[in-house]
Specification:
It contains 26 helices and 74 strands. Strands 57, 58, 59, 60, 61, 71, 72, 73 and 74 form a 9-stranded mixed sheet that branches. The chain is globular and about 100 Å long.
Length: about 1300
């Protein structure tokens, strides 16, 4: 691309109005060395370096936003003509199971203690006492108090620090904050009662769901729970004398150790713990066990509160509602779910009350205005019911409303444009409304006089708000007017600020003087869990002669229930089932095929002949071909005369004689094979074949005749579809996810071409519904488990397993889960899969557990039924790639008539190596290095003078180019694993072409994800090595993947379901916004027993993210939503041991980094991308929206990450699978460098640090003897250390396990030079 076409961004404006530009020398080198892609990434890097150099600019970046306009219409909310839809909606679905008792403070160990001092904090929500003027604020999930003297001094001290006078900071005395609530629970959102006698706050104490609590308020000094840190302290007013608190503190270490060691807490110890934590007299106001509550405010009468109750939908982000709660009497019990909705969610046009639960946007941030009116903020941009990211904050996202609860009328107080309006706070005299909004490149504190309607932007020193994202921690921290309304106390840029106010000539409040910092210090005291870590020895796994397959799909059963068949990683297998050999392993046999080099799938038995199987063969150019195999003779025939297409689920009828009807499903295009070839007329097809009298010799063909398309309700391309003819060929039984139905073939089509469909059973949330041929019994998979019910018990209602609402008579027959459920022809035996274990149950034997089934409304008899199961372990293995590599190398040498000695040795000479062995540049940099690889394993690496190259080795001269370990994408996503057709993956090939040799996907599919991994490992397709979490352990209301973790059994089963399918290659799971901290802790405890890592979904809820760190999760995936972090969070995160995968590409704190790439890189015309990727996906990003630099909060995230890395944090590169794959990984590296990390530190994050965190560093992540040879070779002109970070794109060769490819073409260079598999035709040009 010509330089004239290179995208150029204007230099960002700095707070003082000056401009910073990139150096001409850097731009010249950029033009000289890089193509358009590298140039665009340099723009990223150079731009972001500004935020590292200019702290003031970083402050301005600290919270970005986005959105467009919407017209708001005033209307009555609860008029007779427009009733409140919430009144017709019942919130009674989730959770599926009620939680069992748990205390997050005592049922989970916290053996470590971290203490440090800070003079700044992150996102401090606060209130000011209505009479004393004391400030209470939250920090890191603890509550602190400052006396009014901390800021009263500012009114007389003209030299106090301000934005313009940082040099005088030391002249003002810093006040030590008094801790008033500490401990394991995460406490936040403090707020005083109108008379100042009570304090409400949010806490996840006890069960781990955030609720509102209340405690008496007696003052900063008397409530200080660490009196030894501050002089002149007396706690007697609080009902606890100092000596009792001191005594409790003296035994703190001993009693904390007792909890860590599992010694149950006595009532005396509990009292002392609660006293030390400051919550001895605290009690609940709310008792939510699934929804969570925040931001409570007292009614003026002081007897009730309004709070925001957050509701998730199928998505896990929360939509707010205003709920009213009465203050409880002392020591009273609060009924679960109590409270009353007073402001609900509005529905978009065309939605009904039944859709209410899916509304993803609602009101929040409630405050009282008088006795019967509520002021609140709401996102009005997402008016269609679905929350969207990357909105335009300048056009306005939030508006502020007032609802009169007597008239039920709502009016707009502040419209959304310009810049939005959120976080309303009211002056104590009720005249002045304060709120925050974006004004160009600044965040303003705005005052609106409610009498005149006049607006005053009084201060532009705030941190950017978070109105662009879903922010249950608040779009801005709560703030407060002082008792006499002469000032506002508010958090900004890490500090507490005093904003003096005065009434002007009209009586309207305006800024009186320069805002000033309220200097404070705080002692942080956190107990931490051990960070979840484990190690997986990949070297043993991948260098063995064979590797075992654990995940299977497409289960089918013969008529007698004596033989099963299934697919494993593109191979059809069969196994003779023997209930007498339960719990013994048995090797599966391959079904005979015509083309063993191709992939096979979707087997089914020929009715009446268990020796014959019909299944499908896949070719990436010819698509599907059906084959008929005889297991007894080993013969295979092709079923010919089918047009080009994608076919699945072939079955034959149980007709007599050799003339049979055949049915199958045709799918249209899919993700891996594109939408270009053979996409017409998907759906059900019927034809006829004549079976040979005998199948003896392979190679013959059997024509399919009279193929026709039948209109049906079958959803083509669905994973769990099965077909079966009934009554010969008169009817067709169809099982799909959520429904079993029969198509009447004999009755023929109607005049419109439709066949009669009769539903047998529907699942309310089922992933599979399967019925017997007799249609008298139904098996279904619900909440991952397998259930059985009699048809007569379902009453034509959707079947469901929710305790208390479950279908009558259901029995749970799986202990930990199952999939691909099948009945035998008699309807007496049921089969299903879970990993390499074939489960079976003789259903009539359930009568032995009938009383337990009837009495157990939660586990539905499984504790008895589990003893009735027959389980057979299935053994399937394949040669590892290391074994195939050596075989290929020796075969190639023999083909060339070359010396076969050391034929499997590959050496790289004249290299500039970054070994990443120690993580220190001075040790890891090796000039003129030689690497020797034998059989895919690094045998030696070091200076050329110390490394001998074996005779007969293949030698590559690196010409001085850099050689580094293969990259690891710790947070990768892609879509191809869900394909039901075993096509080769252009996605995986693209990853590898861009140097990514190891993928870790934290959200895939328990089964299909490991099937895909098996296809890579068995040589079925080219790609990086794959690890993943399987399905996320999901907390919100998506039925098929929702996963209650109500007890430790649930936690163990959730992890076993993942572990079983992946075996030793399954070592991680993802908690995805599990609503309960108790659930998250249960999973962590069971993960220790199964040696699994926890990689939770972060990015949405700052409060939850902090508990992930405290509770010892392995990483936090995505950046914390508050992008500019201060010393409280920086130190906690960096020293905790939890790693960071910030995914700047998808940064929830503002406009996402992917948009920066799309706007500055000509993706659609990049030749390398077009060589590997679907063009339609590239062309989706031709047109983009211009955004100012300060809309990209990832700038600040990068700076925060860099600060924490310098403190000891381990960070990683995770590109989130955003388009375009491959290139976006290098953009993520550039964004990581932007905050101040060196190129070497970024490369370390992409290699050794990632490997260490994932526990695979014994085999990958560095270049050293004994490790797998995952290597990237760069062109000699690339300078990875001193050059632009964008040069990481200039890859010459990529090596994965010793196999070498040209990175530009993915043509294999060694050992089989010139090999390149044909890929599906995915593009029309």
């Amino acid at each position: 691309m010509d330089d004239a076409k290179m995208p150029v961004l204007p230099p960002p404006s700095v707070a003082n109005g000056t401009n910073i530009s990139r150096s001409n020398e850097r731009r010249a080198r950029h033009r000289r060395r890089l193509g358009q892609l590298g140039r665009a990434l340099l723009v990223i890097c150079a731009t972001l370096q500004i935020s590292a150099l200019l702290p003031d600019l970083v402050q301005r970046f600290a919270g970005t936003s986005v959105d467009s306009k919407i017209i708001i219409v005033q209307r009555p909310i609860n008029s007779a003509s427009n009733a409140d839809p919430a009144g017709e909606w019942k919130d009674d679905t989730w959770p599926l199971r009620a939680p069992t008792p748990w205390d997050i403070s005592t049922d989970f160990p916290f053996p470590r203690t971290l203490e440090y001092d800070v003079d700044e904090g992150t996102w401090l929500r606060l209130d000011v006492h209505p009479t004393s003027g004391e400030i209470v604020f939250d920090m890191l999930g603890d509550l602190y108090c400052l006396p009014a003297s901390s800021y009263l001094q500012l009114s007389t001290n003209s030299s106090s620090p301000s934005l313009k006078s940082e040099s005088t900071k030391d002249e003002t005395i810093s006040t030590a904050a008094r801790p008033i609530l500490l401990g394991i629970p995460h406490d936040s959102d403090p707020r005083f009662s109108p008379d100042g006698s009570l304090l409400v706050f949010r806490s996840d104490a006890e069960l781990g769901v955030e609720n509102i609590w209340v405690t008496d308020w007696t003052g900063c000094e008397s409530m200080n729970i660490r009196p030894h840190l501050h002089a002149n302290n007396d706690t007697s007013e609080f009902g606890v004398n100092t000596s009792e608190l001191v005594d409790a503190l003296n035994v703190r270490e001993v009693e904390d150790d007792m909890l860590t060691n599992g010694i149950k807490e006595t009532s005396e110890r509990k009292r002392r713990r609660l006293l030390r934590e400051g919550r001895l007299h605290a009690q609940r106001v709310t008792n939510e066990t699934y929804r969570w509550v925040s931001d409570a405010r007292f009614h003026p009468n002081g007897s009730e509160i309004i709070a925001t109750k957050w509701h998730t939908s199928t998505r896990s982000l929360g939509a707010g509602e205003g709920w009213l709660y009465a203050l409880p009497a002392k020591n009273s019990q609060i009924e679960a779910g109590s409270g009353r909705r007073v402001v609900g969610r509005e529905l978009p046009l065309g939605w009904s009350a039944a859709d209410y639960g899916e509304q993803q946007v609602g009101p929040e941030q409630f405050i009282w205005h008088g006795e019967d009116a509520l002021i609140f903020a709401k996102n009005v941009e997402d008016s269609a019911g679905s929350f969207n990211y990357d909105k335009d904050v300048h056009s306005g996202i939030y508006a502020i409303f007032e609802r009169n609860l007597t008239t039920n009328r709502t009016k707009i107080l502040v419209p959304p444009s310009p810049g939005g309006a959120s976080r309303p706070e009211l002056s104590r005299d009720g005249r002045t409304l304060a709120f925050v909004r974006r004004v160009r490149d600044k965040e303003a504190l705005v005052l609106k006089d409610l009498q005149s309607g006049t607006l005053h932007n009084i201060w532009y020193g705030l941190t950017f708000d978070l109105s662009v994202i879903s922010a249950p921690m608040g779009t801005y921290p709560s703030f407060s007017f002082t008792p006499n309304d002469n000032a506002i106390v508010i958090w900004a840029a890490g500090k507490l600020w005093h904003i003096p106010l005065v009434a002007d000539a009209l009586g309207e409040k305006v800024l009186a003087d320069e805002p000033r910092i309220i200097p404070f210090s705080a002692h942080v005291e956190k107990r931490l869990a051990e960070t979840r870590a484990s190690s997986t020895d990949l070297r043993v796994l991948e260098t063995a002669p064979t590797q075992r397959l654990h995940a299977f799909v497409d289960l089918t059963v013969d008529d007698a229930g004596a033989r099963v068949a299934f697919q494993g990683a593109g191979v059809s297998y069969y196994l003779d089932f023997d209930s007498a050999s339960s719990w013994k392993s048995k090797a599966a046999q391959k079904v005979p095929v015509l083309h063993p080099e191709e992939a096979y799938y979707s087997p089914s038995f020929v009715p009446g002949n268990s020796d014959q199987i019909i299944h499908a063969r896949w070719s990436d150019r010819n698509f599907s071909t059906l084959e008929l195999a005889d297991l007894s003779t080993g013969a295979a025939y092709e079923l010919s005369d089918l047009p080009l297409g994608r076919y699945i689920n072939p079955i034959l009828c149980s007709c007599t004689g050799n003339n049979r009807q055949i049915a199958f499903i045709k799918a249209a295009g899919d993700y891996l094979t594109g939408n270009i070839v053979a996409t017409a007329d998907p759906g059900l097809y019927i034809g006829e074949i004549t079976l040979p009298d005998s199948l003896t010799g392979s190679g013959s063909s059997v024509p399919i005749r009279n193929v026709r398309h039948l209109r049906s309700q079958i959803s083509s391309g669905e994973d769990r579809t099965t077909l079966k003819f009934l009554d010969g060929n008169k009817k067709l039984l169809v099982h799909q996810s959520g429904r079993a139905f029969v198509i009447d073939l004999e009755g023929g089509p109607s005049t419109s071409g439709d066949y009669n469909h009769t539903t047998i059973a529907n699942g309310l949330m089922a992933a599979e519904v399967t019925t017997t041929v007799q249609q008298d019994k139904i098996a279904f998979v619900d909440a991952y488990n397998v259930f059985v019910v009699r048809k007569n018990d379902i009453d034509n209602e959707p079947i469901w397993s929710k305790p208390g609402s479950a279908t009558k008579g259901i029995a749970r027959v799986s202990l930990d889960g199952g999939h691909h459920v099948q009945w035998d022809a008699s309807g007496k035996r049921l089969f299903w899969l879970l990993g390499p274990y074939l489960h079976s149950l003789e259903v009539p034997r359930l009568s032995k557990c009938q009383s337990e089934i009837e009495a157990d409304g939660v586990r539905f008899g499984i504790d008895c039924i589990k003893d009735l199961l027959d389980v057979q372990e299935v053994e399937v293995s394949y040669p590892t790639d290391i074994a195939r590599l050596s075989r290929d190398a020796y075969a190639e040498a023999r083909a060339r008539a070359a010396d076969t000695q050391n034929a499997d040795v590959y050496a790289i000479t004249n290299a500039t190596a970054l070994t990443m062995v120690s993580g220190a540049l001075s040790y890891d940099f090796v000039r003129d290095a030689t690497l020797v690889i034998r059989g895919g394993i690094i045998e030696n690496v070091g200076p050329a003078s110390s490394v001998a190259i074996p005779h007969g080795a293949t030698v590559l001269n690196a010409d001085g180019g850099f050689v580094v370990p293969g990259f690891i994408d710790v947070h990768a996503h892609w879509s191809g694993f869900s394909n039901i057709f075993p096509a080769r993956s252009w996605e995986l090939e693209t990853f590898l072409a861009y140097g990514v040799t190891t993928l870790h996907n934290p959200s895939s599919d328990n089964v299909r994800g490991f099937v895909e991994r098996g296809r890579v490992e068995n040589g079925g397709m080219v790609g990086p090595r794959i690890f993943h979490t399987g399905d996320v352990i999901y907390g919100a209301g998506w039925g098929e993947i929702h996963n209650d973790v109500a007890d430790l059994n649930d936690a163990r089963s959730a992890l076993i379901r993942i572990k079983a399918e992946g075996g030793p290659a399954s070592f991680s799971y993802k908690n995805y916004n599990q609503y309960s901290r108790a659930s998250r802790q249960r999973l962590l405890l069971e993960a220790r027993n199964l040696s699994m890592l926890c990689v939770p979904e972060g990015g949405m809820n700052q409060d939850w993210d902090l508990t992930y760190i405290v509770d010892g999760m392995t990483t936090v995936e995505h950046a914390l939503p508050i992008s500019t972090l201060y010393e409280d969070v920086l130190t906690l995160y960096a020293l905790s041991g939890t790693g960071a995968t910030p995914t700047h590409i998808v940064n929830y704190g503002g406009t996402m980094g992917e948009q920066f790439v799309w706007a500055n890189v000509d993706i659609a015309n990049d030749q390398k991308l077009r060589r590997f990727t679907r063009h339609d996906l590239l062309e989706n990003h031709i047109e983009t929206t211009h955004r100012p630099l300060d809309s990209f909060a990832f700038f600040n995230t990068s700076t925060s990450i860099a600060k924490m890395v310098r403190k000891g944090l381990r960070t990683h590169i995770g590109a989130h699978g955003e388009a375009p794959l491959g290139l976006i990984y290098h953009a993520e590296m550039a964004f990581t460098a932007a905050g101040g990390l060196s190129n070497f530190e970024v490369l370390r994050a992409a290699t050794s640090d990632a490997a260490i965190t994932l526990g695979i560093d014994s085999a990958v992540g560095s270049l050293e003897r004994g490790k797998l040879a995952d290597i990237i070779v760069y062109s000699p002109e690339v300078d990875l250390l001193q050059g632009d970070i964008g040069e990481t794109l200039q890859i010459r060769l990529v090596v994965r396990g010793g196999r070498v490819w040209d990175a530009e073409t993915m043509v294999e260079e060694w050992p089989k030079k010139g090999r390149k598999a044909l890929m599906p035709i995915i593009n029309a040009d």
